[in-house]
Amino acid sequence: MLTKIAQNKNISKPVIYGIASTFLTDEEKYFFEKSAPIGFIIFTRNITDKTQLKNLTNSLREVMGGEVLILTDQEGGRVARLESPHWKEYPAGQHFAELYQIDRELAKKSLFENFAAIARDLIEIGINVNCAPVLDILTKQTHEIIGNRAYGNEPNQVSELGKKVCEGLLSEGVYPIIKHIPGHGRGVSDSHLELPIVDASLEELRQTDFVPFQNLNDQKFAMTAHILYSAIDQKNCATISKKVIGLIREEIGFKNILMSDDMSMKALKSGFADKTKSILDAGCDLVLHCNGNMNEMKEIDSVLPNLTDKFFEKLTA
């Protein structure tokens, strides 16, 4: 699949866009064809049923003249874009974290099977990337925006369970995205609404938050956390911090495709052109814009560089 994307000559920009509704408008078709994004992300607002969603993903590929990344968030629990009655409901991460305390092997086996089933649901309707697993470690002050999405409060447990999520998805042809690198678990506020600040020491972060990402640093995709880590960079949140991105690349060892979390979240200030440049200048490979707002997408598009041969080599390695 990634090779087909690299071979698609209609793709040229390092961005993943959201879509406004359940079908592509003529304006969206024209814009996407001209702006040439590498992918799209699907939300509940884009879905009515299986047939409609399959038609939508087919339309995206048709407009782009071939294979593209098509993402969604299908973690299970409250973060699930594919909902009943058209799709099965799956449990949240906490379910498997609790099962792990009783029977580790059963928890890992169940989690693999759970995400293999999710992957089959996704492939059936044309989605090839799942924004999961959450590798954030629970603490006593973890904000509810992470909450029961997490796989526990112990780094090795989160690593083991996160690995099974990845293996289950990949077994059926869906790529996982590990998130929110380098760790959102210490955040005490919701980055959708404001910028969380984490004051833990670098040594604390190394012993806990970084560990699952180090253990899964061979995965193809990772998504940043819109969090300010004062021990690393007192000015910039991770997504736009050269210091944090450098740490992700070198110390955590993640060398593959790094994308921002949604740049329309309120944790990131300034205009969309400036945010786009800041994200890419910091060292992210892709920017993510989710809300489908055409004016914002046009502003982003105005400053996007072209994808490089080096990017496509990394994508297909």
Instruction: Report strand %.
Output: 15-25%
- Choose one word for the global shape: globular
Look at the structure and give the CATH class: Alpha Beta
Sequence of secondary-structure elements? HEHEHEEEHHEHEEHHEEHEHEHH
CATH architecture type: Alpha-Beta Barrel
- Annotation, overall tally of beta strands: 12
The parts where pLDDT drops under 50 for at least 5 residues are: none
Fraction in helix? 40-55%
Structure class? alpha/beta
CATH-defined fold name: TIM Barrel
In DSSP terms (H or I, runs of 4 or more residues), the helix count works out at 12
Rg value: 18 Å
Task: Determine the CATH superfamily.
Answer: Glycoside hydrolase, family 3, N-terminal domain
Count of spatially separate domains = 1
- What gap, in angstroms, lies between the N and C termini? 12 Å
Mean pLDDT: 96
Q: How is the biggest beta sheet arranged?
A: 8 strands, parallel, barrel
Spatial arrangement of strands, main beta sheet: 1-2-3-6-7-9-11-12
Describe the structure in your own words.
The structure is a single chain. The protein has helices spanning 2-7, 26-35, 50-64, 93-102, 104-124, 155-171, 202-207, 210-215, 242-250, 272-282, 294-301, 309-316, and strands at 13-18, 37-42, 69-72, 74-76, 79-80, 129-130, 175-181, 197-198, 221-224, 228-229, 257-262, 286-289. With 317 residues, the chain is an alpha/beta fold. α10 (272-282) links the parallel β11 (257-262) and β12 (286-289). It is globular and about 50 Å long. The mean pLDDT is 96.
